[in-house]
Amino acid sequence: MIQCENVYKSFGDRTVLSGIHFSISKGKIFGLLGPSGAGKTTLIKILTGQLSFEKGKASVLNNSVQNLTDEEKKNIGIMMDQFGVYDRLSCTDNLKIFADIYSVAHNVIQSTLEMVGLKNAMNMKAMDLSKGMRTRLQLARAFLHSPSIIFLDEPTAGLDPLTMKSIHKMILDKKESGCTIFLTTHNMEEAAALCDTVALLNEGVIVEIGSPKEMCRKYNHHKTIKLHLISGEDMELMHGKESADEIYQLLKSECIETIHSSEPNLETVFLELTGRKLQGDV
Amino acid sequence: MRNVLIIIKKQFRDTLKNKTVLIQFVLFPIMTLIMEHAIELDGMPECFFTKLFSVMYIGMAPLTTVAAIISEEKEKNTLRVLMMANVKPWQYLTGVGIYVWILCMAGALVMATGLERQFIFFYLAVMGTGFMISVILGGCVGIFAKNQMSATSIVIPVMAILSFGPMLAMFNGTLEKVVRFIYTQQLKGFLDGMSFECVKGESVGIVLVNACLLIALFFLTFKRRGLE
Ligand SMILES: Nc1ncnc2c1ncn2[C@@H]1O[C@H](COP(=O)(O)OP(=O)(O)OP(=O)(O)O)[C@@H](O)[C@H]1O
Ligand SMILES: [Mg+2]
After folding, report:
1. What's the pLDDT tens digit per position in B88-118?
2. Which of its termini does chain B have fewer beta carbons within 10 Å around, N or C?
3. Whose CA is nearest to atom 8 of ligand 1?
4. CB burial class (10 A; 0-12, 13-18, 19+) of residue A103?
């Protein structure tokens, strides 16, 4: 459904994306995970035809992104944080405009608003919505015409965990109904929870790509077990026979408060690959 | 064409809520009604205020509203969303233009209530022409400006020339010689005559040249700036 072959993009003499290469098959969720400034939004813009690029091939729905037909464009839903809504209009009126453009029946507006949990706010002006509600209105707009491909640029950035969960559920529901979803995030938990495939993007280069689980397994070099003892002492043991004996002894003498296995997550994988953190101080 | 109608419909939904734009549409019609009824001086030409305010209405309302609507949509990034939903730039611009023209004509109808019946058709024809030219000029500003602030800063001086030029020219002969090359001044002349017989070929020529220049400017700006 979505393919990138060796895509390069630069602004002036600054290369923002280099050698981007991946393909996404139908009904999958693809996550582009990377820190701020990595080039995530730029890639979405390229894939949705908002930006031109110098080199390589990018295609959506088996057609090059530069010459998508009107019919194909109708099959794409986009949500970007830079996109605006009509502040003075209600949620319903906001969606009405796009329902008209896409020739969607007006009763779909209500069901879409219900789906994103804005049923009670449907007559509220967009300017009175909270940040999370606004995001959901934008999601509703991206979902409205039931596109088969959806691009979401940081759909949960800056939202509380509860709203985030409900948005995750919506995205998974969409996948269930056969949509192909491309999303960007700098939240590795989100990527791990949602995506079938994750690409780690750092300074315009995809440093690793694969299913989140496999990726963690692959980079699970230092397999350790962390113990917290009742005495307050912390221990970290390597996998192996000696550790097993030690743990056995500790367990028997009831000295252990908690045991953790320390699995690598996408965060540590990213750190290992780039020496950078995804969020916070870089 | 369907998308043009959708844009017009969208604008109509927004009208009553958008106070800054709404006031542009109603200010002069209301002022005209009030002044024509409140002030009557000896020796004042008939429908003096209607004619004066009509010219100012042409020079202000379409220009400011078109520029404000387009630049707001740019600033708030809603225009981008429309474009991504496959609304073509010309559909958007036409929609906004038609919407503003219709509302201005509605305003002109209100202002025409003070005129004698036989003049109304001529009056509306002049007003309609003026609005059309001003809408195009407003489109130029809207396309050129990146946000509302810069749109306003361009609109204000242009509006002052178009609207106050003809008014000041009444008191100043030298100014009149310059201002006569502006379409609003010629339209004011038409309104003073108030009949097709009084319309001189030279005046029509000036209005046409104005229109052509602005249309050329419009396409030039669009070609250079696009709609983003
Ligand atoms: N129009 C532009 N002109 C010049 N440079 C740009 C432009 N757009 C983006 N960039 C640069 O490209 C780089 C990547 O930007 P991009 O917006 O794609 O990052 P991002 O991964 O989406 O970051 P964030 O998580 O903060 O949204 C940044 O360094 C940015 O400065
Ligand atoms: Mg971004």
Report:
1. 999 999 999 999 999 999 999 999 988 888 8
2. N
3. A42
4. exposed
Rounded CA-CA distance A61/B160 in Å is 52
Q: pLDDT tens across A189-198, in order?
A: 888 889 999 9
Overall domain count for chain B: 1
The pLDDT > 90 percentage for chain A reads 41
Q: Per the domain annotation, does B75 fall within a domain?
A: yes
B76 CB near a chain A CB, below 8 Å?
yes
Cα atoms in the 13 Å half-sphere on the side-chain side of B18: 19
Q: Say which residues have a Cβ less than 8 Å from residue A86's Cβ, sequence separation at least 6.
A: A93, A94, A97, A126, B10, B14, B78
Q: Is the CB of A178 under 6 A from ligand 1?
A: no
State the smallest CA–CA distance between residue A230 and chain B in angstroms.
Answer: 57
What is the span of the domain harbouring residue B14? 2-37+48-225
Ligand 1 atom nearest A38 alpha carbon: 21
Domain definitions of chain A by residue range: 222-262
Considering only CA atoms, which residue is closest to atom 27 of ligand 1? Answer: A36
Whether A227 contacts A237, CB under 8 Å: yes
Per-residue pLDDT reduced to its tens digit, A83-94? 899 999 999 999
User: How many A/B residue pairs have CB atoms within 8 Å?
Assistant: 47
